[in-house]
Structure formats: structure tokens, C-alpha cells
Amino acid sequence: MTYATDFGQFISEQKRKHSLQSKELADMLNISMGYLSQLEHGKRVCPDQELLKRMIDVFNLNEEERCIIYDLYEKASGKLSPDIVEYVQSKDIVKKALRAAKAVNATDSDWEMFIEAIKNEQ
């Protein structure tokens, strides 16, 4: 399956994937059909975090799909992805690491090495 390039398209694709009608999906998400339409057509791009979580649950998104919806949300809203914000806020050491990386102007290559090191530890 190819994935959407924007938040609204992703919602539409998931709606089709799960064979849901707009009214049915709106009811499941506890939003109006008008709001759902605005989300799908890119007229509204910043649902609150609770709605984002309901979408993840209703669509039963796997880890890859959760990352996709969060990244599309981030791209559309201009806000840092909620899953990342939650993690950074819960770990003081992450803030320290990010500030250290910022201080030395860490490159993409530096970050790739860091990611590989973490993966190899597991």
C-alpha cells in the first residue's frame, strides 16, 4: 500500500481501507461529518491530541502507520509530533542530549550513527 502525502489523504485512505462511510467514521471519532470532511480535504489540519489518539485506535494503526500519521500531522500543523513531545517531556536526559547535539551542531551522519548505536544495543 502506498501511503498518503498529506494528513487528510491519510484519513481518507484509512476510511477506504476499513470500508467506513463518512457518517460511520465521524460517529466513531465523536466528531461531526463536516469536521471530518474538513480534515480530509485539508481545510482543518490540527485535530487535538485526543482526536489523533482516537484515529489511531479506530484505524487500529500499526507502529509504521502511527509514525506516518504523526509525521503527516507534524507536516500539516507545523507542530512537533505529539508522540515525540510526550517522550521528550518525560525524559530529562533527552532534553540534555538534544541540547548537547545542538551545541555541537550535530550532523545527520552523527544522528544516524547514534540511531544505529541504540538499535545495536537492543
TrEMBL record:
SUPFAM superfamilies xrefs: lambda repressor-like DNA-binding domains (SSF47413)
Q: What PROSITE patterns does its record include?
A: HTH_CROC1 (PS50943)
Q: What GO annotations for molecular function exist for this entry?
A: DNA binding
InterPro entries linked to this entry? Cro/C1-type_HTH (IPR001387), Lambda_DNA-bd_dom_sf (IPR010982)
SMART domains the UniProt entry points to: HTH_XRE
Q: HTH cro/C1-type domain: which residues?
A: 11-66
Name of the featured protein: Helix-turn-helix protein
UniProt organism field: Ruminococcus flavefaciens
